[in-house]
Amino acid sequence: MKIALSQWKPGWTARLAAAGIRLTRARHFRGHGVHSPFVYAIVREVFMRTTLLPGDRTLYEALLAAGVSERRAMQLQNLAIHAGYGTFGLNRADAAFCIATHDVPRAELLALNAAALRTGATLAILEPNAESERRALCRQIVATHRSTSVDNRAYLLLFNNHLPKQHFIL
Q: What are the residues facing 97 on neighbouring strands?
């Protein structure tokens, strides 16, 4: 279908760009197109799971108390169990699994990222695409990150381990 230039409207650009983003994410649907066994296992065992894994529920309860949705809290709890994280920290970096909520200001988020990198902890940034400023900050963090990162739109996972530098958008 051809569109004459006289019919072109400014709003179409945004809709076309949004469709392009959806198309690039579609190739990773249900793990297809993810060429990392580590990330593929996370997609299959954590993101696609609809129940809590057996184990401690402390993180799940803390996330619910912080206002995180039940589904996202369940996914992060399952990730902690799946990856074997013994400790977690909400808005602090003194644990193996650190979670930065939406309320964390820019400077503190950068400090959390630096601390997680220094200690080898995994950092989860909730709502990385909430507004343009936060999206730009998360892109900056991913660009300088040295290991694997996974963005599933609800949170951005930054792994600080032996994995190669890769970025997955699910």
A: 88, 122
DSSP 8-state class, residue 124: E
pLDDT digit string (tens) for 34-86? 678 888 899 988 989 999 999 999 999 999 999 999 999 999 999 999 999 99
- Report in angstroms the alpha-carbon separations of 86 from 15, 94, 112, 122: 43, 12, 18, 12
pLDDT in tens, 138-150: 999 999 999 999 9
Residues facing residue 156 across a β-bridge: 125, 151
Cα separation values, 100 from 15, 52, 64, Å = 30, 21, 14
User: For 164, what's the count of Cα atoms within 13 Å in the CB-facing half-sphere?
Assistant: 4
Rounded distance between C-alpha atoms, residue 9 and residue 159, angstroms: 42
> DSSP letters of 87-111?
-EEES--SSSEEEE-TT--HHHHHH
pTM comes to 0.79
